[in-house]
Design brief:
By secondary structure, this protein is α/β, with parallel strands linked by helices. The chain folds into 4 domains: 161 residues; 244 residues, no CATH class; 187 residues, 2-Layer Sandwich (Alpha-Beta Plaits), CATH 3.30.70.1230; 59 residues, no CATH class. The chain has 25 helices and 28 strands. The strands form 6 sheets. Strands 20, 21, 22, 23, 24, 25, 26, 27 and 28 form a 9-stranded mixed beta sheet that branches. Strand 21 and strand 22 form a beta hairpin.
């Protein structure tokens, strides 16, 4: 039989649909799941899909934290061709820090050769030859050298300031200048390994400048198969040392991290870099995806000449400045997903902004497995669920499945900050759709022809066609609610953090925050945010909960008990014990999706929230773990409460009673001491300090785990010697937050 496309199409139309569809799914799934590089066509399609997601979710605005000082054509016209004399670069640095009060400066520029424009080298040669016996010439040179040695002036401008210089690695074995101190070495990795090949050569900065700068970072991107820059190596290796990218080195300076610590996953592959708590995700090869916020000039650009003149407004204080160029003659124009002529310095700006805002996306270790699973589900739906007889239904069904696949992928992209391959799955669905349409057309034509053969003599063609077509034989908008808010904080956390290495501190915080979060979730609480070692949570939203106060108090008590068990676990690991303070308050709060156009969060606001935070701050003063406001006590009568004090916090004129929950039940001895405490407190508020003092002393001798009796005993002694005014209401005033 002679082979032809028509024969193949007829065979496909006659073959079982599930068999051909299954074969196509298997072919795509094998390519998706296998390790190594994708097929060139698939890689190209994936690049297109990646760029589309990037464009769909781009911020469209710059980041005020990052500003670009541009050595543009106008600056070159005013200040002269590049390279400028280093005294001018020194002035640029001085202007940025002294006049504009910037936070840090990174140079997307190399200074590999000495600056001879000052002429000091000529005078030094004369001092060693023609005028070597002239004291006057030697004295004049000594006086002039500080002004004419422009490299020294640039170095002095950088010294002691957060300035990062750029370096570059080369494909040749040539070297120039000096490399900065590496981020870490192979010896620091121990048994781990970062899968990157060593570089052959480099171009650094002259030693005088390299020593004066606070750090250095490479400016080399990665070009994909289409010569587009989507990724940047966060580190590069030279010999056994690893050097950070310019953005990573600048981020370390900005967050004042002591170093850059690589993190590895359970498989021993590189997972991220830890900058003193700022975690920067990376692929196992050390690559980071650039989170482009938009096209060229999305970030704020300031002309370098205007900075030198001081004519640009001083309205970017506290920003991180990257110095680079958009002048075409300086050849720092790159191709990116948003434009073929993208300034190289803005690539670093996008990456730095993503690091500082925790917006970097990464390809997770299980991305191929997730892609394969989604592909199998989508393919099976297309083969076994979507009807193939009617083209409209086939196309609509495939588009619905493709939309679901895209939605799941965008969920990973936006919510998990994970890049899961998408193009191959969409290509599979397109292939299945074309297969269904083409074979459906062939089958339709064959069936119509068969019907015509059978009935064409008896009925008109229109009726044959009709016979064939019959087919027979929760809103996040802001609102006001009654809620309960909780604030917890680790006491003396600074001392704890200083006693541990960064990696150990990170492990300790994970070991602490995880069980605390589990407790809150079990009690139907909503985690608002983590603020370092602090936790903010609330009850009663997004799902309404009439027992929000009860559940919040129960969670606080469970957190207190869980910390007690954690101390034992921490001691076994050689970690310091933790103590926490918890503040709870109930009341009317505003809850909803709040924030800026750059970042939003589902959170609570209001005076009742502020009071909860202040109650947490008072726990240390009163020596108790939990303090609650009066509204919380009223809303949770199931618990046994100890009234701690009446306080007048900053911003509130009316005294507020604060309470400590003891549990839903207490033993007889605790109940007796509680009655004695309230009796002593009543005498204290009745101004009978002499009578209350011995009662507090007796409680202090028998009570354990609280410093309240001692505190009030000392107050009684003070007030007995210096009685309060006649209008004293027993409240303690606090003038600070």
């Amino acid at each position: 039989m002679r082979f032809s496309p028509g024969v193949l199409l007829a065979w496909l139309a006659g073959a079982p649909r599930w068999l051909v569809g299954g074969a196509l799914i298997a072919l795509f799934a094998v390519d998706a799941y296998q390790g190594g590089d994708r097929l060139p066509l698939v890689a190209k399609l994936e690049a297109i899909a990646y760029d589309a997601r990037l464009a769909l979710t781009r911020a469209g605005t710059g980041d005020p934290q990052v500003v670009i000082v541009d050595i543009d054509e106008a600056s070159l016209a005013r200040e002269g061709r590049w390279p400028w004399p280093r005294d001018r670069v020194a002035k640029l640095v001085a202007q940025l820090f002294e006049r504009y009060q910037v936070r840090a400066v990174g140079f997307d520029v190399l200074f590999a050769e000495r600056d001879t424009s000052g002429g000091v080298h000529v005078l030094e040669d004369l001092a060693l030859s023609k005028f070597k016996d002239s004291p006057l010439f030697t004295a004049a040179l000594t006086e002039l050298r500080p002004r004419l040695d422009y490299d020294a002036r640039f170095a002095e401008a950088m010294r002691g300031r957060p300035v990062v210089l750029g370096i570059a690695f080369t494909d040749t074995t040539n070297t120039a200048g000096r490399l900065p101190v590496p981020a870490f070495t192979q010896a620091d990795l121990g048994t781990h390994e970062i899968r990157i090949a060593p570089e052959r050569g480099y171009t650094g900065n002259i030693p005088e400048l390299a020593r004066a700068a606070a750090g250095g970072g490479h400016i080399d991107p990665v070009f994909d198969v289409d010569n587009v820059i989507r990724r940047v190596p966060l580190v590069k290796r030279y010999n056994d040392a690893f050097y950070p990218a310019l953005a990573l080195a600048t981020a370390r300076i900005v967050v004042e991290a002591k170093g850059i610590v690589p993190r590895f996953d359970d498989n021993g592959d590189l997972d991220a870099f830890d900058l003193g708590g700022l975690v920067v995700p990376a692929s196992r090869e050390g690559l980071a995806l650039v989170p482009y916020r938009g096209g060229p000039k999305t970030f704020r650009y300031i002309r370098a000449a205007d900075v030198l003149d001081g004519t640009t407004p001083p309205d970017f204080a506290g920003a991180v400045v990257l110095v680079g160029t958009t002048a075409k003659g300086l050849q720092d124009i790159r191709s990116t997903p948003f434009a073929p002529d993208f300034p190289g310095v803005e690539i670093h700006a996008n990456l730095l902004s993503g690091m500082l805002n925790d917006e970097l996306k990464a390809v997770p270790a299980g991305a191929r497995a997730v892609e394969t699973l989604v592909m199998l589900v989508a393919g099976l739906l297309a083969v076994f669920v979507i009807p193939w007889r009617r083209p409209l239904f086939t196309v609509a069904g495939i588009f619905v499945v493709a939309a679901l696949v895209t939605a799941v992928n965008l969920w990973f992209w936006t919510q998990q900050k994970s890049v899961v391959p998408l193009a191959a799955t969409l290509a599979l669905l397109l292939t299945l759709m074309l297969y269904n349409l083409l074979t459906g057309f062939v089958r339709e034509a064959r069936a119509t022809r068969t019907l015509s053969d059978l009935f064409g003599e008896y009925v008109p063609p229109e009726r044959v066609r009709q016979m064939r077509e019959s087919g027979e034989s929760f809103s996040m908008e802001g609102e006001s609610r009654e809620l309960t808010v909780l604030f917890s904080d680790v006491r003396e956390f600074t001392a704890v953090s200083e006693s541990l290495a960064p990696r150990e501190l990170s492990a300790l915080m994970n070991a602490y925050l995880t069980p605390m979060t589990e407790v809150i979730h079990r009690s139907r609480g909503t985690i608002d945010k983590y603020i370092g070692d602090a936790i903010m949570a609330f009850w009663g939203a997004p799902l309404a909960n009439p027992r929000h106060a009860h559940d919040a108090v129960a969670a606080a008590l469970a957190m207190r008990d869980r910390v007690a068990t954690l101390r034992v676990e921490f001691a076994q690991r050689g970690w310091p014990p933790l103590a926490i303070g918890i503040g709870l308050n109930s009341g009317t709060m505003n809850v909803g999706d709040m924030g800026s156009r750059f970042r939003k969060a589902y959170t609570v606001l209001g005076d009742a929230v502020n009071l909860g935070s202040r109650l947490e701050g008072l726990t240390k003063l009163y020596g108790v773990t939990i303090l609650c406001g009066e509204d919380t006590r009223i809303a949770a009568p199931e618990f046994v409460w100890r009234e701690v004090d009446r306080v007048r916090v900053k911003g509130r004129a009316k005294p507020l009673a604060i309470y400590e929950p003891l549990g839903e039940k207490v033993d007889a001895e605790t109940a007796r001491q509680l009655d004695a405490w309230h009796a002593a407190l009543a005498r204290y508020r009745a101004r009978d300090f002499a009578g209350a003092a011995p009662m507090f002393s007796a409680l202090a001798a028998t009570a354990s785990g609280t410093a309240l009796p001692k505190l009030f005993g000392e107050r009684c002694a003070t007030l007995a010697s210096a009685p309060p005014p006649a209008d004293w209401d027993g409240a303690t005033s606090f003038t600070v937050k």
